[in-house]
Design brief:
about 150 residues, single chain, mainly alpha
Length: about 150
């Protein structure tokens, strides 16, 4: 039986890993996975990185499919959930055997909690929407702010 606290941290880390695959940040999280698995065997290291690369390709294909066929969005969500659960299990079992990797697991989990501020500039006419809007919209084209 795995420690519930370990499973909780692994859940956060798995969420970060899978989310990075969905948002195009898979290459950015890959070194963190290598760092996490550095205490394992060469086979464990290779399996983790190969699995990451394969899962990133799979999710990329599903994202493209969902973009062109909206009915595929529910399948994308199902695949995302499945991969997240597989990563939770993989991470928790590995760190259970390699306790020295626990801080690396926590670092991956906390990386997902970091918020970012981004700026997007559009030109032309019409409505531009890209991603989720939180905290309101501030128009800078001379109109009033909302």
């Amino acid at each position: 039986m795995l420690d519930p606290e370990l499973v909780s941290v692994a859940t956060g880390a798995a969420g970060t890993i899978v989310a990075s695959m969905l948002t195009g940040g898979a290459l950015a999280v890959r070194p963190r996975i290598a760092q996490l698995f550095r205490g394992g065997t060469q086979d464990e290291q290779a399996l983790a990185l190969n699995t990451h690369d394969n899962d990133a390709r799979t999710l990329s294909e599903w994202v493209h499919a969902a973009a062109s066929e909206p009915s595929a969005a529910s399948d994308l969500a199902r695949v995302q959930d499945q991969l997240t659960q597989e990563w939770v299990q993989r991470l928790a079992e590995y760190v259970d055997r390699h306790q020295e990797a626990r801080p690396d697991l926590a670092a991956i989990a906390s990386a997902g909690a970091v918020s970012s501020i981004e700026s997007q500039h559009n030109s032309g006419s019409g409505t531009f929407v890209n991603g989720t809007v939180t905290g309101g919209i501030h128009n800078t084209y001379g109109g009033s702010s909302q």
